[in-house]
Amino acid sequence: MKYFEKLLISLAVAMPVVAHAGVVATTAHSRANCVGFNESITWYLGHSFWWRVESHHFLTVNSARPEHVLNTGKSYTWRAAAYHPTESYTGHWYVRGYHYYYPYGNEVLDVTTGATDCNIYDGWWDH
Amino acid sequence: MSKAILMTLVLASTFSTTFADEPGTEQVNKEREEWTRRYFAAQGTAVPDGGVTVLPEKQMSEYYTFKEQRAKSRASVQKYGYIKESVPDAQLLMKVSADTQQRRLASSSANSTEEGLRRSVGEIEMAYNFHGVPAHEMSIDLGVAPSVTYVKGRGWAGATQFFEKDGVGTCSYRENNLQFSHGAAVISEESSTKDVNGKVTVAAVTGQEGEGFMYSVNWYDNHYFRELNCARTTFSSATMKSVLKLAQSIDSHG
Question: Which of A75, A107, A122, A127 should we substitute to test contact with B (largest number of B Cβ atoms within 10 Å)?
Fold first, then answer.
C-alpha cells in the first residue's frame, strides 16, 4: 500500500513536466489533497523569470484564515513551486496560490489560483 | 499605514469581485478575501484585484532586491541603447518559428497540437473572448497556446499567441484577463511611460550581438495585463518603435 501511495505521489509530481500548457507558455496552478501534498506552482519549461509563489493552505473550504502560508521567495527559475509534502491526507484542504512575477524589477501579481482537489485533468492540457 | 498600502486597499475594494471559484460560504469567502487583502497590503505587495499602481521605485517593496539590477540596466541602456545581457528567450522564440514552419511543411495534416500550440484560439477552451493580434499585423500566424491559468468550469484566463511580422521578427503576445486571474501590478514610475494608448507601459530591449535581442513591451490596465515580445538577431531603435506601434495596434484591437 505504501509503495502504491509513493507511486501515485511520484506520478502526480511528474505530471507538470509532461503536461502541455506550461511547455509553450507560462501557466500557474494550485492543487489540493493530492494523496500527501498540497501545492501552488508557476512554470514555463526552459524559460526562466523572476518569480515568487505564495501558497495559502486552509484546513477546510470554510476556514477564513490559512492554517499556514508557504512562500518560495523570489528566484530566477523556470519553475516556482510552493510545495508541501506530507500534507493533505485528510482530503479537506483548500489551497490558494498567489503567483508573483517581477519583470524589470516591477511587481506583478500575475494570477491567483485555487483548488480543492488534485485537478490534474482540469485544464492542465488539451483544453 | 503607509500611503501606498492605503492606496492599494482602496484600489482593491474598488475593483473587488469575488475571487475565482471561492468554495466556502458567502460569509467565509468575504472574511477570507478581506483577510487576504490586508495580509498582502501589510507586506506592501500587490493585492489581488488591486488594479495597477504606479509608485516611485524607492517606495516599492522590492526596491532593494532589484536596486542593483536596475542601476546596471540603466547604465547599459545609456551606453548601448539596450540592456546588454544574454537573453536565451530570444533564441527560443526564433526557434518556435523555425520549428513550427518546418513541422507544418512536413505534415500534410498541419496539426501542431503535439507541441501545445493550436492553430487558432477556437481550439482552446477560453474563459472569455480572447482579443489577440489583428490578422493584418501578422505575416505568419504560428499558433496560440493556453496561458495564465485554467479556471475550473470557466476556461483559460489567458493565452499566448506566436507569429512572425515582417520587418519586426518573431513575436509572442500574452493576454491575461484580470476578471479571471485577479492580478494586480505595482510598477515603478521611473521605468514606465504611457506609450501604449495612455496605459501604463514598460518597454525594453535586452540582448547581445551574436546571440539575438528581445524587444519587449508590457502594458497594464485594470482589465488586462498584456505582454508583447519580439525576437530578432540585430538591434535597432527603429525596431523598438515598430514593436511599440504593434502594441498600440493590438491594444486598440482589443
Answer: A107
Q: Where are the beta strands (DSSP E) in B117-154?
A: 140-151
Residue B1 has a pLDDT of: 42
- Start-to-end Cα distance in chain B: 37
Q: Which of B27, B19, B22, B154 is nearest to A61 (CA)?
A: B22
Note whether B115 contacts A119, CB cutoff 8 Å. Answer: no
Is pLDDT larger for residue B15 or for residue A48?
A48
pTM for the predicted model, two decimal places? 0.86
d(CA B154, CA B125) in angstroms, rounded, equals 8
| pLDDT given at position B105 | 61
The three-point CA angle B132-B14-A54 to 5° equals 70
Whether B188 sits inside 8 A of A65 (CB atoms) is: no
- The interface predicted TM-score of the complex, written ipTM, equals 0.87
Chain A interface disruption, residue of B29, B58, B113, B147, most A CBs within 10 A: B147
Say which residue, B114 or A28, is predicted with more confidence.
A28
Q: What architecture is the A2-115 domain classified under in CATH?
A: Sandwich (2.60)
User: How close B22 gets to chain A, by Cα (Å)?
Assistant: 8
Q: Is B123 on the interface with A (CB under 8 A)?
A: no
How far is Cα of residue B201 from the mean position of the Cα atoms in its chain? Answer: 11
Q: Do B24 and A124 touch (CB under 8 A)?
A: no
